Amino acid sequence: MKTSSSSSMLRRLTISLMRLSTSSAVAPLPLTTPFGHQLHHTLQSLQTDHSQNANGLLHALVDASTATQQITLNSLSHFTTCQPASDRKIIDDYLDFNVKMLDTCNDITEKIDTIRNYVESLKVVSHLLQGNIEPHPTTLARAKHFLDSCHNAMKTKRPFKRFFSQKLAQSSSSDTLLGEILGGSKAVTSVVCEILGTALSFKSKQRLSLLPQSTRSSYWSCSLQQLQKQIKEHQKSGSSMMLVELHQTVKAAHNLRIQIKSRNTTRSDVEELKRRCEELEEEIKPFEGKVKEMYKHLISVRMALLGILSSQF
């Protein structure tokens, strides 16, 4: 009798749960998968106090993007072939996106080279004026020429490519495990490249076109949206995502340019420019290596997906 009563209660509980699960009034919980767990914790590690500092956040973001590609690569090792027919389209879409991100990495590397050339020109200026209390008019003219060239190069530099769109948000909204994995890789890489491209831009007030909020709800996407909210709050406070040393160097060059025009150049102006150039050179070094590492991981993910496709034939 007790067993029958227990079985009856179990059946009623099961029916209640089934009705609850099909009710449209109950929002589904974010998906939890091994990939989602790892990516969630990677993104959560950015939600720390050091993220309030633009430079600290930038370094952490690039590291997080590289870690995401490694998580993606490890997750793809469990796939030997495309199971659902939809997986083929998911892979094809990702491969197209992957090419754009590889191009973006090359663009970022070019921006780093541009900054290096900018610094080299400014170092020539500081060398011309250093130690001269009253520089010769010819020396001042040469210094002004270099500063004018730097200023014009900043204004005419082509804008950074942006790949944020509703299509990206939709392509991250797949019900398959492969879709979640590649969607996570795309979303994180896009956010990081967007922020890094802006940080290395000469436009200090450039706004970020962050990932649309319509991205599929999952364990990792909640963390990514929280990170974007943190960045938006950073910008609302009037702070710039521009690399701190780049911003300070541009400011020092601008001030010296004004002083030369007014023929009121001081030794402290020249020393300020020299110091800012040295700081920028030191800060820019790690970024090039990190971008190359991210590029290498994107290539590895691409090769893994091509291997999965080739196993079908």
UniProtKB/TrEMBL annotation:
It comes from the Eukaryota. It holds the Pfam family BPS1. Residues 263-290 form a coiled coil. Keywords: Coiled coil, Signal. Residues 1-25 form the signal peptide. GO terms for biological process: root development; shoot system development. InterPro entries: BPS1_pln. The keyword Signal applies. This is Uncharacterized protein.
